[in-house]
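Page 37, continued from 36.
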């Protein structure tokens, strides 16, 4: 405007300048809220900024961190996926997306995302370490499911035991493995063991339909019709 004054443009420029100052103030407040671990307030402030600065990858990554802390993984994934597109070679975003999927028990999507990270940087230590873990787990689960389809229930049980050893920390995999072992025991006419294990799963997930069905089958084998 200094080089080419114009009344119309000056008004617009002043408006944008005021908005810019306001957004910088909100940004400082958002960072402060994040540092003080007030993630809800940080998200609210970042929402305001991102309504204007739609293409800011770093702000999306910061909001994703807040969502993770607030226990909203699906919203975090949405922001991280946007950040992965907005910033070239964003290995960190792919790594975080893969980790979240892994923690949620979605090993297939986790594997897919960590592969995207390694496409960008095959020497990325965190991604390679996660890739090895997820690939091993994925292979064991696929193999166990193949055994179930073939009616090889003892082999499937053994394979799901291996799944629990491969990932003892993330509870969702142990629960899922126990649910499938219960299914195998029920199919294998091992009713007492099936009832015990299905009950264990149902204490953790009372509305688990598969465990309810498999326990019902096991009760039938034992002539426990009321149950």
């Amino acid at each position: 405007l200094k080089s080419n004054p114009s009344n119309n443009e000056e008004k617009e420029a002043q408006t944008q300048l005021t908005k810019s100052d306001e957004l910088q103030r909100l940004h400082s407040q958002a960072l402060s809220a994040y540092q003080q671990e007030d993630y809800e307030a940080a998200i609210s402030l970042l929402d305001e900024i991102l309504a204007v600065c739609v293409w800011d990858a770093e702000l999306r990554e910061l909001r994703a961190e807040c969502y993770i802390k607030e226990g909203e993984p699906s919203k975090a994934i949405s922001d991280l996926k946007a950040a992965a597109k907005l910033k070239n070679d964003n290995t960190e975003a792919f790594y975080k997306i893969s980790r979240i999927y892994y923690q949620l028990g979605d090993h297939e999507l986790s594997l897919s995302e960590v592969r995207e990270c390694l496409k960008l940087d095959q020497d990325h230590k965190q991604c390679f370490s996660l890739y090895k873990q997820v690939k091993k787990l994925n292979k064991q689960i696929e193999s166990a499911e193949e055994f179930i389809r073939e009616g090889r229930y003892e082999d499937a049980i053994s394979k799901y035991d291996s799944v629990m050893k491969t990932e003892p920390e993330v509870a969702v995999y142990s629960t899922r493995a126990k649910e499938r072992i219960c299914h195998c025991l029920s199919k294998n006419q091992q009713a007492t063991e099936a009832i015990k294990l299905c009950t264990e799963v149902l204490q953790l997930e009372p509305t688990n339909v598969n465990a309810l069905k498999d326990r019902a089958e096991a009760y039938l084998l034992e002539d426990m019709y009321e149950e």
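The mean pLDDT is 95. Flag for discussion at group meeting. DSSP finds eleven helices and no strands in the chain.
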